């Protein structure tokens, strides 16, 4: 029984061997003068064709030869054989390839598939280079923009209010030497198509970004930038108003260099300057009700709010460098909620060089006591003290002689000090007065002047008998002014 099985298996094996051998013989006979199935040469299908048929096919194909080039961003270029005087001759490699494919009798299809060979080709190289140089795919056009590659980088994303890694942009700018060589190689092979978007076949024809998303330093850069930028530096200005430096602001002031964060100090100082000027009311034009009941506009002077710029710059720079717990930063990155924002907020109190009576962030110059103030009309040589919106006291005065260095200044000022038994000292005088109420730091103030000829006072007396800039008063009026005017009260001096 076993012997019969083995005999049967032997017969079957022999049949199979004979079948394979017979099929192999048939294939070799059938394809003895033909290209094997699946054969293509330089991208052209020649399977089942004789050597001469395939040569004729190729020659016919190249009679109206064109090389179609596909580039990135839908770029394209067609090179016509006529434009570059292209011609081709079947090289000996063609016969060698055919012979090599048929040399293995037992494994006839072992060499099938795509083959690449060179031809004897000729073309005008100068015309080819001109064709490439002037092409849209190289030079660009109104409809095909050339985009340079952009490296992957850390960038502040407004929508997320944080730094993130932005992937590189490959662009479509060709490396002309490499591109030119690739085209010449395609011509040598007689190819009719080139796909430059195939990065494996053409890895070097396009310019590449210097930094890619795989760069190890990039994640470190994102982390360092977030640690520096993710903070809110706040100032409580009162009246429910706050000013703050935001991560978006800081992102414009920092750069990453050699593994460190570098701050643009000038940009920080410029922001602080703008911040301080926003709330500065010193020197602004104010309109007040004069003794006539009409509104008078007065500009200049030193009354108003003014922040201390130098100290505010120090506050800002200190807060920028202040270490914030990384856990709080990471919490904000994951969830930029109000609670997490609070964790990375640094609060400051505004520091002022000068203050005023009140704050009004709807009308900034509405910063003075509109019911209680003093008006000095230099044209009338009169002083009017307002209390509760009405003139409570008025008196005559003699202002500075209208010459350079002695003329009384105009503007809105504040009362700076009250002194009794005070000696005024100037370049050419030293005068004792019983009462002194300072208006400006440069020397203007109210004081008695019993040396003035009050019996013949007129509003023009100051033109010939004026002071050194102070407001001379009769002794009794000087005492009244001394008692009525309050420290830091606003005084309007106008002509």
Report on the architecture of this protein:
The protein has 495 residues and is α+β, with helices and mostly antiparallel strands. The chain has 14 helices and 28 strands. It has a five-stranded mixed β-sheet with strand order 22-21-20-28-23, with helices on one face. The protein has a four-stranded mixed β-sheet with strand order 24-25-26-27, covered by helices on one side. Helix 9 packs across helix 10. It is rod-shaped.
Observed structural traits:
495 residues; 25% strand; five-stranded mixed beta sheet; alpha+beta; four-stranded mixed beta sheet; rod-shaped
Side-by-side strand order of the widest sheet: 22-21-20-28-23
Multimeric state of these chains? Answer: single chain
Largest sheet: 5 strands, mixed
Regions with pLDDT < 50 over 5+ consecutive residues? 13-23
Percentage of residues assigned to helices: 25-40%
Question: Per the principal axes of the C-alpha atoms, what is the gross shape?
Answer: rod-shaped
Binned strand content:
25-35%
Structural class: alpha+beta
Span from first to last CA?
140 Å
Mean pLDDT across every amino acid position: 91
How much is the radius of gyration in Å?
A: 47 Å
> How many individual helices?
14
Number of strands: 28
């Amino acid at each position: 029984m076993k012997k019969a099985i083995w005999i049967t298996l032997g017969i079957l094996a022999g049949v199979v061997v004979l079948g394979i051998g017979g099929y192999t013989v048939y294939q070799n006979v059938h394809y003895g003068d033909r290209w094997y199935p699946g054969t293509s040469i330089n991208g052209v299908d020649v399977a089942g064709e004789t050597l001469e048929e395939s040569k004729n096919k190729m020659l016919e194909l190249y009679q109206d030869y064109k090389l179609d080039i596909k580039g990135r961003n839908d770029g394209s270029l067609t090179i016509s054989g006529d434009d570059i005087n292209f011609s081709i001759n079947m090289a000996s490699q063609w016969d060698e390839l055919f012979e090599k494919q048929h040399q293995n009798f037992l494994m006839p299809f072992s060499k099938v598939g795509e083959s690449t060979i060179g031809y004897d080709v000729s073309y005008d190289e100068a015309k080819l280079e001109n064709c490439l140089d002037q092409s849209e795919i190289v030079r660009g056009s109104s409809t095909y923009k050339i985009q340079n590659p952009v490296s992957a980088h850390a960038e502040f994303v407004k929508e997320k209010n944080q730094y993130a890694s932005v992937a590189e942009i490959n662009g479509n700018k060709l490396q002309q030497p490499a591109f030119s060589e690739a085209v010449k190689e395609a011509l040598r092979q007689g190819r009719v198509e080139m796909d430059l978007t195939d990065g494996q076949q053409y890895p070097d024809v396009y310019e590449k970004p210097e930094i890619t998303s795989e760069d190890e330093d990039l994640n470190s850069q994102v982390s360092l930038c977030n640690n520096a930028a993710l903070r809110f530096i706040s100032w409580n200005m009162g009246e429910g108003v706050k000013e703050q430096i935001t991560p978006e602001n800081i992102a414009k002031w920092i750069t990453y260099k050699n593994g460190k964060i570098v701050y643009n100090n000038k940009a920080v100082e410029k922001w602080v300057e703008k911040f301080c000027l926003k709330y500065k009311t010193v020197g602004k034009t104010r309109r007040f009700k004069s003794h006539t009941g009409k509104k008078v506009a007065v500009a200049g002077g030193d009354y108003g709010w003014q922040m201390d710029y130098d100290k505010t710059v120090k506050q800002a720079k200190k807060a920028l460098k202040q270490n914030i717990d990384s856990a709080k930063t990471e919490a904000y990155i994951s969830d930029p909620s109000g609670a997490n924002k609070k964790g990375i907020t640094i609060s400051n109190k505004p520091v002022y060089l000068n203050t005023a009576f009140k704050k009004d962030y709807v009308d900034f110059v509405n910063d003075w006591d509109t019911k209680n103030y003093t008006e000095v009309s230099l044209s009338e040589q009169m002083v009017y003290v307002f209390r509760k919106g009405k003139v409570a006291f008025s008196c005559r005065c003699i202002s500075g002689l209208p010459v350079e260095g002695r003329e009384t200044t105009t503007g809105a000022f504040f009362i700076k000090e009250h002194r009794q038994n005070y000696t005024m000292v100037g370049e050419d005088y030293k005068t004792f007065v019983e009462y002194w109420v300072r208006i400006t730091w440069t020397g203007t103030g109210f004081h008695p002047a019993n040396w003035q000829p009050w019996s013949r006072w007129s509003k023009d007396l100051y033109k010939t008998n004026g002071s050194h800039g102070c407001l001379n008063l009769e002794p009794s009026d000087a005492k009244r002014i001394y008692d009525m005017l309050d420290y830091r009260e606003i005084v309007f001096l106008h002509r």
